[in-house]
Specification:
By secondary structure, the chain is mainly α. It has 13 helices and no strands.
């Protein structure tokens, strides 16, 4: 937990409430403790220590939005005071206790970039993306991965994940553009996933052939075969069309 010091001295009534809240928390009476901590914050909203004590308790109690509001308030206070390391610690704790809050991950990563920690920001964005896997959360996942791509433009896993999200949100052109880039860079199991997604998006015979080829070779496919011309069929298309033709039984005369 992030430790904070109240911005002003604790008043006698506030001290009594704080003592009762700590006692209730130590005795396992979470509801009573939360109620008392809330009363303190109503009377003294600037008590950062209480805000950081009750925020995880609220998250555990299913009050994630209220917990995030407290985390954000404390982080903003630290940012205004230019205490950026403390601010970052608060955002990290928020990501841990309220992982479903998109802004917690975004703001944490942006602050890491401000503090010249791009690797940490990239890891935060990728980890945050894993919290948004539902159909209604694809927009948040795309936003986090797009920001991660600005930091690491050629991370293969990020590109493939982003292509899959584009495909799932009917942005096929963007998905195919990323997949075409990946196909020239990857091999093995990852290339097989690229070809399978290309085939699912286009249903073109050439991608079926390219997907089948991934089972028999480890090296990346020559980029030349990635050229898609509408007027000339590739050799692979011709082979598949030939195999797809029904074979006629030869009938002997006489």
């Amino acid at each position: 937990m992030v430790v904070a010091t109240p911005l002003r001295p604790v008043r006698p009534r506030e001290y009594q409430l704080l003592t009762d809240a700590h006692r209730a928390r130590s005795n396992g009476k979470a509801r009573a403790a939360i109620r008392l901590y809330r009363r303190i914050l109503v009377e003294n909203p600037s008590n950062l220590e209480v805000a950081l004590r009750v925020a995880p308790m609220l998250a555990w109690a299913g009050q994630g939005f209220e917990a995030w509001q407290l985390y954000r308030r404390v982080a903003m206070d630290y940012a205004r005071a230019r205490q950026y390391n403390e601010c970052l610690a608060v955002y990290r704790e928020a990501c841990r206790f309220v992982p479903g809050e998109f802004e917690a991950w975004r703001l944490c990563a942006e602050l890491q970039l401000k503090l010249k920690k791009p690797e940490g920001a990239f890891e935060t964005l990728v980890e945050g993306r894993m919290q948004f896997g539902g159909p209604s959360q694809r927009g948040q996942a795309i936003a986090l991965l797009s920001r991660a791509r600005e930091i690491e433009p050629w991370d293969d896993d990020v590109l493939l994940d982003l292509a899959g999200l584009y495909a799932a949100t009917d942005q096929d052109d963007l998905a195919l553009e990323l997949l075409s880039t990946l196909a020239c860079r990857v091999h093995g199991r990852l290339l097989r996933r690229v070809r399978a997604l290309q085939l699912r998006l286009t249903y073109q015979p050439r991608y079926a052939w390219l997907w089948l080829r991934t089972f028999g070779r480890r090296a990346p496919v020559d980029p030349i075969i990635e050229r898609d011309t509408a007027s000339h069929a590739t050799a692979e298309d011709a082979v598949i069309e030939t195999l797809a033709r029904p074979r006629l039984r030869r009938v002997s005369s006489g």
